[in-house]
């Protein structure tokens, strides 16, 4: 999948690249028996807020090397307090992998955690872009809860899959993961759907795409999706017109 046929429905569809780190993360995804994010999945859910199990910071049996237990604080504010969400430590991340039967080199865990955190920060930044369309007299949106749904294709991903079967040239793959994030928008709950795609490498750089958009479960979200899709369509049309004019002027010269 190239940037030309990335799933639309923006304002996301941007590339996240960092060669060596993403190579390890991408290869781990391709080689894993369960091709999904190793944590934050409903089957492990114990917490109603983040759908995460209570992972120990202790080393697991057979672990060969020490993994840090420090947790990184995200830029994502919590809805129920003045604090920010924390990402799992490398040790917790590795414990989650072991629980799920993933075979991942322990030496790669810290890199995988960096990529995992990076992608989630990107997802939150895209949510903020959508939220800028709203006028709220509060301190901005906050993340209320989130849920991993790797086995559940979103309606959009399913439609893209069907389209690829009818029009193979589209070449749209299945997302390797899906998250549903529910935010607090000035006291109102709004759900976002995030599809995570792994695209073919561009040279030496592996590529991931995030398709972030409000779920179509309210009239307000439907209107927002239509507005953004319309804006994108006109932007693409203007780019085509501009390119055609430049080509015509080049022929004349």
Automatic annotation (TrEMBL):
<dbReference type="Pfam" id="PF01265">
    <property type="entry name" value="Cyto_heme_lyase"/>
</dbReference>
<dbReference type="InterPro" id="IPR000511">
    <property type="entry name" value="Holocyt_c/c1_synthase"/>
</dbReference>
<keyword id="KW-0408">Iron</keyword>
<comment type="function">
    <text>Lyase that catalyzes the covalent linking of the heme group to the cytochrome C apoprotein to produce the mature functional cytochrome.</text>
</comment>
<dbReference type="GO" id="GO:0004408">
    <property type="term" value="F:holocytochrome-c synthase activity"/>
</dbReference>
<keyword id="KW-0999">Mitochondrion inner membrane</keyword>
<feature type="region of interest" description="Disordered">
    <location>
        <begin position="1"/>
        <end position="36"/>
    </location>
</feature>
<protein>
    <recommendedName>
        <fullName>Holocytochrome c-type synthase</fullName>
        <ecNumber>4.4.1.17</ecNumber>
    </recommendedName>
</protein>
<comment type="similarity">
    <text>Belongs to the cytochrome c-type heme lyase family.</text>
</comment>
<dbReference type="GO" id="GO:0005743">
    <property type="term" value="C:mitochondrial inner membrane"/>
</dbReference>
<keyword id="KW-0472">Membrane</keyword>
<keyword id="KW-0496">Mitochondrion</keyword>
<keyword id="KW-0456">Lyase</keyword>
<keyword id="KW-0349">Heme</keyword>
<keyword id="KW-0479">Metal-binding</keyword>
<feature type="compositionally biased region" description="Polar residues">
    <location>
        <begin position="22"/>
        <end position="36"/>
    </location>
</feature>
<dbReference type="GO" id="GO:0046872">
    <property type="term" value="F:metal ion binding"/>
</dbReference>
């Amino acid at each position: 999948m190239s940037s030309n046929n990335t799933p639309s429905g923006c304002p996301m569809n941007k590339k996240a690249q960092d060669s060596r780190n993403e190579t390890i993360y991408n290869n781990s995804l391709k080689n894993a028996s369960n091709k999904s994010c190793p944590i934050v999945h409903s089957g492990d859910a114990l917490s109603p807020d983040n759908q995460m199990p209570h992972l120990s910071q202790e080393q697991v049996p057979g672990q060969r090397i020490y993994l840090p237990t420090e947790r990184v604080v995200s830029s994502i504010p919590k809805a129920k307090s003045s604090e920010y969400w924390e990402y799992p430590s490398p040790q917790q991340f590795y414990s989650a992998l072991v629980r799920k039967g993933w075979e991942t080199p322990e030496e790669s865990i810290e890199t995988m955690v960096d990529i995992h955190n990076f992608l989630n920060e990107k997802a939150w930044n895209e949510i903020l872009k959508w939220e800028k369309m709203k006028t709220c007299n509060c301190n901005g949106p906050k993340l209320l809860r989130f849920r991993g749904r790797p086995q559940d294709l979103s309606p959009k991903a399913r439609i893209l899959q069907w389209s690829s079967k009818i029009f193979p040239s589209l070449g749209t793959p299945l997302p390797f993961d899906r998250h549903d994030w529910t935010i607090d928008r000035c006291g109102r709950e709004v759900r976002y759907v995030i599809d995570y795609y792994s695209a073919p490498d561009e040279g030496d750089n592996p590529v991931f795409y995030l398709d972030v958009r409000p779920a179509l479960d309210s009239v307000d979200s439907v209107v927002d999706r239509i507005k953004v899709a319309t804006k994108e369509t006109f932007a693409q049309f203007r780019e085509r017109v501009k390119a055609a004019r430049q080509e015509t002027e080049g022929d004349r010269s």
